[in-house]
Amino acid sequence: MVISPDLLQVKGLGKVFPNGGRTKTVLKEVDFHLPGHDSLAVVGPSGCGKTTLLLILSGLLLPTEGMIELENETITCPTRKIALVLQEYGLFPWKTVAANMTLGAQLQKIRISEDELSLLKKELGIVGLDHLYPHQLSGGQRQRVALARALLLRPRLLLLDEPFAALDTITRERLQNHLLTLFHHRQFSFIIVTHNVEEAVFLGRRILVLGNRTASIRALIENPEMGALDYRRSSLCFERILQLREILKELMPNND
Hints:
Number of helices: 7
CATH class of the domain at 8-81 and 155-251: Alpha Beta
Shape: globular
């Protein structure tokens, strides 16, 4: 058996759904790898299989073909090594912030010390919110609680599905900065699905572009300079944004 040094290996991944007596191919021959303490942004037109890819990577959805390996172990079901954060946050409205934050760790029987919990709340800027309920929080605060719940699982891989899409621009950029800081401090890897070109370039050390016609990878952009909080203001970041926009424009139908 060949032992890979990568954290994640995705090989020949495909997914076919039934569609009114026929079938619909959502993903086809998807191959990529992700080293430890690295990041990947996934972009592409609506309906190209981005969320399906995350659900398969999380173990919540089985592929039709292909294989996923995390630390050289095949993923066929959810594992505590992988945490998933959805766009809708997934917070229970009848539970307080404190209860929502620690729920996943309790279900996984992970012991969380008060020091660890306090440090994470400080890092995410959600100190003093324990007694509140989700409806009493802003969108940014709800997203930070969802991130805290995921990170308390101490995942090796964090999966994020459009996590900041519903937020205003300034809040979105602040949470991108928070994620990047946590990425450096806590040494996990993450994959983020996004429709936002600037977000993909700011957060993805590599950027994977999916196409909806071929259901496969259309481009893989190397973005090694990613990682500094001031990267978004650099000329190189702007060049990569233009490069990614040009690729996406070729995939989008022209309705003019």
